[in-house]
Amino acid sequence: MELDIVELSRLQFAMTALYHFLFVPLTLGLSIIVAIMETVYVMTARPIWRQITKFWATLFGINFVLGVATGITMEFQFGMNWSYYSHYVGDVFGAPLAIEGLMAFFLEATFVGLFFFGWEKLSRVQHLVVAWLVAIGSNFSALWILIANGWMQNPVGAEFNPDTMRMEMTSFFEVVFNGVAQAKFVHTVSAGYVTASVFVLGVSAWYLLKGRHIELARRSITVAASFGLASALSVVVLGDESGYETSHNQKMKLAAIEGMWETEPAPASFTLVGLPDQEARETHYAIRIPWVMGLIGTRSLTEEIPGIDKLVAEAETRIKSGIIAYDALMTIREQRDATPAEVRATFENHGGDLGYAFLLKRYVDDPRDADAELIASTAWDTVPTVWPLFWSFRIMVGLGFSFIALMAYFFWRSSFKAQSYPRWALRLAVVMIPAPWIAAELGWFVAEFGRQPWTVDGVLPTALSVSHLSVQDLLLTLAGFVIFYTVLFIVEIGLMLKYIRKGPFQDVDLTNDWEARHERRLRRREGESPFAPAE
User: Fold this and answer.
1) Which of 102, 112, 154, 504 could form a disulfide with 180 if both were Cys (CB 3.0 to 4.6 A apart)?
2) Are 276 and 386 in contact (CB under 8 A)?
3) Which of 25, 47, 27, 24 is nearest to 37 (CA)?
4) What was the pLDDT predicted at 338?
5) Percent residues over pLDDT 70 in the chain
6) Three-state SS across 461-473?
7) Using CA atoms, how far apart are residues 441 and 355, in angstroms rounded to an integer?
8) Cα gap 181→96, rounded to integer Å
């Protein structure tokens, strides 16, 4: 029954988070793209850029509203479904969430209103400032959320207080500038920029295929391809930085992603493909590239990456150390101020492993009652299920490189081929629209599923974090969330498709547009139709 509650709580939060992240990447990326487009409008005073800005801003607004609606309930779930987690680490985890609400979200929400209703009331420069403040607020909001999440992956700047039985912050600076959090932030927002770029590219390609809103589509492709190429390249670079942080702070996650059961001599090879077998503890039919994993994970030729077997042995040692810490903690709880100094010293020496002793509470009420066999088997609980991580990571990476190729091609056609695009490329751009969301969801799956069995890595096991709810309560709320969010998602898709089909509110008259006439002359000179996409 306890395990059912834990799994249902995890499933409910996972569904909520995955639905919410359908909206977040597009919000992050479109806010920047819209601000770039309005910057061009202010610099050139060309009416068509105002039209382009307002069109993509409409789609941004639809996505923003539904993203807010799905995000609010996530914070309430910490109190509803994860009450012990909130009690145990709330002093640390709550701070960045509070700052996100008070600073970033209010900034974003306030200026969103000015952006949409201030076109005729603000000057062009004033409205441009508002557009950039909306973009900054959107990305700033992501920063504080990812600082909170990064702390769960790498809990720095805090320590456990045996008198209050809670984690307490010791350095706000360390929490904010946590290397894992910063790497996750830049990687996540860059992925959002790619998502928006592919979206703008795909919708614009569809317009060209239909022969509609040609000038809007061509200009939008130019912006999306340029911004998207830079973003796609940065995702790879920043993803490498995130992997480097993982190799230092979450070694088990990295070993599981690689299906690396045994420690290899440095530098470790990278497994391109294979079939991980958790029961046999090996990866069948593995195709490996020598040295690559060692260079990526350690940036050296001499430092080894530990395999799963070695990390399990280390976990067993830490469980035994954690039992010593637990015994000292119980003494402190019983004797309070009369606790001998040597007992507190023992806790100080072993307290960093207390979370590993808590892993035993899944099987025994008192970790001190665990025998050697139970300790050894519990150490294997620190290994997440390998094959989903292994393949999710590789699909995500493969999609990432496909985005680079897509954006590079359209950037080349925009820059050197007079903005003419073959129909096959336009169709491919339309087909690729869902791909960034798939990659983003897989990325979050790798990050969160790979942390199991921990809610806070090495500190608090997931099995201890949940509220005392019934299975019926969880099934009812899970069904409610899934139905509600599915309806919101359908509404989002319906509204997006409605306004995409409708197009911009008013097409610019191109007969008096010198730039458009010049572009049509270039197309005629190359023997192409001046309005239709290239065959």
Assistant:
1) 154
2) yes
3) 47
4) 86
5) 94
6) EHHHCCCCCCHHH
7) 29
8) 11
Residue of 256, 234, 188 whose CA lies nearest to 393: 256
Share of the chain above pLDDT 90, in %: 67
Q: What is the DSSP string of 62-122?
A: HHHHHHHHHHHHHHHHHHHT-HHHHHHHHHHHHHHHHHIIIIIIHHHHHHHHHHHH-TTTS
Angle (CA) 193-198-203 rounded to 5° is 130
Which of these, 449, 505, 480, 493, lies nearest to 77 by C-alpha position?
480
**Cα 151 to Cα 145, 444, 447, distances in angstroms:** 10, 15, 13
Q: Which residues pair with 433 in a beta bridge?
A: none
pLDDT in tens, 81-97: 899 999 999 999 989 98
- Classify strands 454-456 and 460-461 as parallel, antiparallel or unpaired: antiparallel
pLDDT in tens, 352-408: 999 999 999 999 999 999 999 999 999 999 999 999 999 999 999 999 999 999 999
Comparing 258-267, 412-421, 509-518, which segment has the lowest mean pLDDT? 509-518
> How far is CA 133 from each of CA 35, 130, 397, rounded to the nearest angstrom?
9, 5, 32
User: pTM (2 decimals)?
Assistant: 0.90
Burial class (CB in 10 A: 0-12, 13-18, 19+), 14: middle
Please work out, in degrees rounded to the nearest 5, the angle formed at the alpha carbon of residue 136 by the alpha carbons of 140 and 190: 75
H helix count then E strand count, the chain: 20, 6
272 residue type, one letter: L
Q: Are 133 and 111 in contact (CB under 8 A)?
A: yes
| pLDDT of res. 29 | 95
In angstroms, the Cα distances linking 179 to 151, 156, 176, 439, 458 are: 10, 10, 9, 23, 17
Strand partners, 166: 161
Closest CA to 10 of 455, 456, 358: 455
Half-sphere exposure of 185 (CA within 13 A, CB side): 20
Task: Round the average pLDDT of the chain to a whole number and report it.
Answer: 89
Q: Between β-strands 454-456 and 166-169, what pairing exists: parallel, antiparallel or unpaired?
A: unpaired
Please write the tens of the pLDDT for every residue from 310-344: 999 999 999 999 999 999 999 999 988 888 999 99
Q: How far apart are CA 200 and CA 30, in angstroms?
A: 8
Whole-number Å distance between alpha carbons of 121 and 512: 27
Rg for the chain, CA atoms, rounded: 26
pLDDT tens for each residue of 448-478: 999 999 999 999 999 999 998 888 888 898 8
Cα-flanking dihedrals φ and ψ of residue 432, to 5°?
-75, -5
